[in-house]
DUF6089 domain-containing protein (Capnocytophaga gingivalis), 237 residues
Amino acid sequence: MHKYFLWLILTCCAITKGWGQYNEIGVFFGGVNPIADIGSTYYVFPTKPAIGLLYKRNIRKQLSLRADIKWFDLWDSDRRATTDARRNRDFAFQNRMVEMGAGVEYDFLHFDTHEPFKLLFTPYVHTGFYYFKMDRLYFDDITTPSQHAKYQTYPERDESWAIPFTLGVKTRLWGSRFLVGAEVSMRYTFTNNLDGSKSGKGVHFGNLNTNDWYMVSGLYLTYTFGAKKCNCFEFAK
């Protein structure tokens, strides 16, 4: 999977050769939580940490291509739920995941790090596609007392896709080439089995007609590099 992430970065560079003003590379630290059939129904309520790497290629003043990879565990428990039905059921699950994505990021304000003495700040949105690998979970029996209803894991892993809907803000650190951003991203997945509630082997429960979501929220730090493309129209003004 890691070689595909490198391929994504090289592709971004190749298709934007001659366009870009600068590149960004950096790290992500944050948290994740599922929105599924087990656990809390709060949308942003991180339960496990997430770490990642990201790369951006600026292609227009307010538009960038973005590729990233993240590692995390999705975990939740009915003990954190707000409904009596879930708390009384008392199920829990944990799913090891790695995701790799590519998409576009749009800044609402002009954001050019080649203006060294200008305060830079902008909100932004991001979307695209994520491919992820996960454990294949299932429950053998959900009629037994909750302490005996343990999830199981298939020997082989599963894979699926997700669409991110991201809202964030970013700024430059003290006039340097370092940028820091904070974002919250909802991932709509094309699976209903992040929590083991709709596997091919075990019993099914919960809402079987809707797919699962998961949230990724946190901070990233990137370093910008590369020369700004000469814009002859700006000099002609």
Notes: The mean pLDDT is 85. The chain is about 10% helix and 50% strand. The first helix runs from residue 2 to 15.
